[in-house]
Design goal:
The complex is a heterodimer. Chain A contains ten helices and 18 strands. By secondary structure, chain A is of the alpha+beta class. Chain A folds into two domains: 229 residues, P-loop containing nucleotide triphosphate hydrolases (Rossmann fold), CATH 3.40.50.300; 71 residues, Nucleic acid-binding proteins (OB fold (Dihydrolipoamide Acetyltransferase, E2P)), CATH 2.40.50. In chain A, a hairpin with a 3-residue loop joins strand 15 and strand 16. Chain A is globular. Chain A starts with a strand and ends in a 7-residue tail after the last strand. Chain B is mainly α. Chain B has a domain of 167 residues: MetI-like (MetI-like fold, Orthogonal Bundle). In chain B, 72% of the residues lie in helices and 0% in strands. In chain B, helix 1 packs across helix 13, helix 3 crosses helix 13 and helix 4 crosses helix 10. The chains are: A alpha+beta, B mainly alpha.
């Protein structure tokens, strides 16, 4: 069991309000990702759930039980830190066994669980090493091993992959997702990387300045962003926004079109936006074109990798009329 | 970046280093040499460098007049006891200041340090009277207590500095792993801070061992430490330099040896965190 419920949780550090008022319900077994730009309060929110920070007001329920004032040790949650936070003076075995020792588990149980965790995470041959003799990816696995042995109600991940190189990050992303499918334990994962959020989450919480902008499945967020912030944050490359008369034509204060929702042509199209190609980023599978559109500014267009454009080419852009997002003056989706 | 240093400069610096070291060591050397001289030789107007009539009688005279072993035992009890007691109080205190600071933590640290700025004699009368009323005068535990209190600011300051170097993430990980405060300190913080704790321990044993003011004023026969032992040789009957030297040598030898064997640890501890 591992349902987590936040009710009107607020957090200030002195005068500075980090989280004005958040209510969230996370279901048992769900993989929830908190995503948002730096300083949006996502790590603070995770630390509040962990008990590493005290709430200023509000209630945190774990499995329906009020844990707002409980110390981290009593909450039954496990956390994986960005810095791995392994105990440098202990071997891998002792690191993984530490939570079990703290829970006063019998030695046979500890050995058995450590062996199991080590096998699951491919760490069996490193059990007698110290953390400093391991690579970044191995250290992160030890941190995960330490978390899984205690069979927590939920796992909390605080940007666990940001210290790894790109290739390893993709691998670990898969491993964590697989782990979730195996264990079916609630996981909360904090990241600023929207690709991680989209690929891993059952549901995503988009945070901005301590507020929940939207809470929903990755595709919901992509297809039906609640506001301009979510529309701009989810999706890569980010959505193109247009204000002014062009938006007014659609009865909106501003409109947004994703880079992949354009029809692109070298020949003039009726009602199309005319522009000049600036930079063409060729990724092989795709090409991202940065097009200067007359009167509207710079737009990013995704096109297939076979198309070749060069700097200065004239192009015509036709947004897919069924996929134009409309926003009011406050940025709320219409 | 490698620096080119000429041989001449190297020789110069080596010579200067030796000169300074010898200058600092010379009083100890003089005590060492004088301890093996006769009294007459020791006070001679034109003193000789090496003992002309090598003798051990000063040592036996010292042992006859006053019980060296008893004083040495007291010194060990007081210095080790006060250091261990100080660490038992200082580790939790430094934990609180390093990992759970408040707005006033800096002030508390400064205030603790400021107690070291007051001359000890300033609190002699109240402490003497308290010790008299509590029957702590001339007791080993009384002296241990006062030694703990006077060295506690240094213990806390040193530990605080080392603890600040330890990433708080690791302590938080221990909390998440189910460690209560006691386990967090004993199983995670202390093992990680071993170099710092060891050098704090060594430095405080040395400080307590060499402390003279309180040992001399608060003890007499029973609980006297080696510093009281030495001072008893600067007697009203006149100065017996050779015997005083023998007593001093006996008093400093243990701590000198300890310092010699632990100098690596001390230097590492005192420069801990200077280079990351």
């Amino acid at each position: 069991m591992g349902s987590i419920s936040l009710q009107h949780v607020k957090k200030s550090f002195g005068e500075v309000q980090i989280i004005p008022d958040i209510s969230l319900d996370i279901k048992d077994g769900e993989f929830v990702v908190f995503v948002g730009p730096s300083g949006c309060g996502k790590s603070t929110l995770l630390r509040l759930i962990a008990g590493l920070e005290d709430t200023t007001s509000g209630t945190i329920l774990l499995d329906g039980q009020d844990m707002t004032k409980a110390p981290p040790a009593r909450r039954g949650l496990a956390m994986v830190f960005q810095s791995y936070a392994l105990y440098p003076h202990m071997t891998v075995r002792d690191n993984i066994a530490f939570p079990l020792k703290m829970a006063k588990a019998p030695k046979e149980v500890i050995d058995q669980k450590v062996e199991y965790a080590a096998r699951t995470l491919n760490l069996s041959s490193y059990l007698d090493r110290r953390p400093r003799a391991l690579s970044g990816g191995q250290r992160q696995r030890v941190a995960i091993g330490r978390a899984i042995v205690r069979e927590p109600k939920a796992f909390l991940f605080d940007e666990p992959l940001s210290n790894l190189d790109a290739a390893l990050r993709v691998n670990m992303r898969l491993e964590i997702t697989e782990l979730h499918q195996q264990l079916k334990t609630t996981m909360i994962y904090v990241t600023h990387d929207q690709v991680e959020a989209m690929t891993m989450a059952d549901r995503i919480v988009v945070l901005n300045a301590g507020n929940v902008e939207q809470f929903g499945s990755p595709l919901d967020l992509y297809k039906k962003p609640a506001n301009r912030f979510v529309a701009g944050f989810i999706g890569s490359p980010r959505m193109n926004f247009v204000d002014g008369p062009e938006a007014a034509k659609h009865n909106a204060h501003s409109i947004g079109v994703r880079p992949e929702h354009f029809k692109l042509s070298r020949d003039p199209l009726a009602n199309a936006w005319k522009g000049k190609v600036g930079v063409a980023e060729q990724l092989g599978s795709d090409t991202f074109l940065h097009v200067h559109v007359e009167g509207l500014g710079l737009m990013t267009i995704r096109t297939d990798g076979d198309q070749t454009f060069s700097h200065g080419d004239d192009v015509y852009l036709m947004p897919d009329p069924t996929r134009i997002y409309r926003f009011d003056a406050a940025g709320i989706a219409l | 970046m490698a620096r080119n240093v000429s041989t001449g400069t190297k020789i110069g610096f080596t010579f200067a280093a030796w000169a300074i070291a010898l200058l600092l060591f010379s009083p100890i050397l003089w005590v060492l040499l004088t301890a093996f001289k006769t009294e007459a030789e020791a006070i001679a107007n034109s003193p000789t460098f090496l003992p002309q009539n090598f003798t051990l009688e000063n040592f036996s005279a010292v042992q006859d007049r006053s019980d060296y072993v008893k004083h040495a035992t007291n010194s060990i009890l007081v210095s080790v006891g006060s250091t261990l007691l100080g660490l038992a109080i200082g580790i939790p205190a430094a934990w609180a200041m390093a990992f759970a600071p408040t707005k006033r933590t800096k002030d508390v640290l400064m205030w603790m340090l400021s107690t070291k700025m007051m001359p000890a004699v300033g609190v002699l009368i109240p402490i003497y009277l308290i010790f008299r009323d509590l029957r702590l005068l001339d007791t080993v535990h009384g002296l241990t207590l006062i030694m703990t209190v006077i060295n506690l600011p240094i213990i806390i300051w040193m530990l605080y500095t080392y603890f600040k170097e330890i990433p708080v993430d690791i302590l938080e990980a221990a909390r998440m792993d189910g460690a209560e405060l006691y386990n967090e300190i004993v199983h995670v913080l202390v093992p990680m801070a071993v170099p710092g704790i060891a050098s704090t321990l060594l430095l405080n044993v040395i400080l307590a061992w060499n402390e003279a003011f309180w040992s001399i004023t608060l003890t007499s026969g029973r609980a006297g430490t080696l510093t009281a032992f030495i001072s008893s040789f600067s007697s009203p009957q006149g100065l017996f330099l050779a015997k005083l030297s023998a007593a001093s040598l006996l008093a400093i030898a243990p701590i000198l040896l300890m310092g010699w064997f632990s100098q690596k640890q001390l230097v590492r501890g005192l420069t801990f965190g200077a280079v990351k």
